[in-house]
Amino acid sequence: MTAPQIYVSFPGTAREALGFYASVFGGELTLHTNAEFGRADGAPDAIAHGELSGVVALAGSDTPPGGTSVRFEGLMLSLLGTAEPAILHDWFNKLSLGGRVVDPLAAKPWGASDGQVIDRYGLHWLIGYEPGADA
């Protein structure tokens, strides 16, 4: 790995959340339960480790009882210029379902197009592209 990877501690929703991100971004999703890893610090079917690999990489697990789950403040996951504009709009729209649009993905006064959305699992995304982009 050449860059930091986002690893999210989900409050018992890792299977659902990582499946959602796989449906948005595509890629390969692998999930491993506590039972598979021989862990006893949570339900046997809780996710001990899950990983989405592909264009957007994301990993996570279910928080063990008493653990702290995801809380985002002052942090965004940036997908600026990471795909063609049509794909970025599609991702933005899918992430918006059940989430909250903070700033619509649209042309801005400085010439770029970008927007922000907090998805249904609490992750804050910044998505956009430069004019004439065909990333």
Automatic annotation (TrEMBL):
SUPFAM superfamilies from the entry? Glyoxalase/Bleomycin resistance protein/Dihydroxybiphenyl dioxygenase (SSF54593)
- Judging by the UniProt lineage, the source's domain of life is Bacteria
Question: Which species does the entry assign this protein to?
Answer: Arthrobacter sedimenti
Q: What is this protein called?
A: VOC family protein
What InterPro entries does the database record attribute to this sequence? Glyas_Bleomycin-R_OHBP_Dase (IPR029068), PhnB-like (IPR028973)
Q: Which Gene3D superfamilies match?
A: 2,3-Dihydroxybiphenyl 1,2-Dioxygenase, domain 1 (3.10.180.10)
